[in-house]
């Protein structure tokens, strides 16, 4: 096993896959003081455009980028099916990896990625960026401090309609390229958030359907989770919901935490009865409002750089990413059989 070293020198980084989400990574690296010096993108038009926009060297093949010796870390922003090959290739060379979600499409590939990071002495961070949101961080702190008592139930939702587009964007509707629909694409974020707030999950029961788009994957899903420590969660995802919603509500025996962007700028509401018993709808409230609550992607990239340069804890590990994949795959199995999946 190679020993990982900590460095404070500016990092030269690369991006594998130059589609839409890659811009968030580029912005994050720029904000963190890292240099995006190269990227890999097989499509000529996109590669030429990004070379101009990013002033970086473009490669058609990610192996050529990794072999160039130009980068110490990479973000992987490819379609889902290519996450594992690119990550394993980088990690086996000792190159740190921030991999977009889902980590991979099967658990054995996730295990290979985790092993490659361990053997190569490199960092593997899963791109569940919501963990880096100040709203989520505050909610997590209040839960850990016991401010809402024992967590009993939570509701997590990420849903949209592709901006009203008549078709699903890019490879997202292809089973071979994406591996799944909204349960995988959006649900893996919510599965990670459920674990982040509530701990390990012991069972899942899911239902899903394709109700709007002519695609090979589901566009609407709902899953019920039961935590090993008690309590439940409802995970709701859709590409059929007009507008855009990203929200969570965590209910406990002594309080509740609620956050949504559905009606405007997201703020965190902490509801409790610290002043004593009252009417059903009359509670004590504390609101948390952050000026930069919408930059979780940037913050996630910054945390990746801090882990490399300062040895800071990895905000979302490869093992965390594997667990969200395990839950999503369990959801697909449950929907297929019509039965809960238990572990």
From TrEMBL:
Gene3D superfamilies associated with the record: Dihydrodipicolinate Reductase, domain 2 (3.30.360.10), NAD(P)-binding Rossmann-like Domain (3.40.50.720)
Domain Gfo/Idh/MocA-like oxidoreductase N-terminal: 11-128
The organism of origin for this protein: Deinococcus arenicola
Domain GFO/IDH/MocA-like oxidoreductase: 136-258
Pfam family, one: GFO_IDH_MocA_C3
Protein name (record): Gfo/Idh/MocA family oxidoreductase
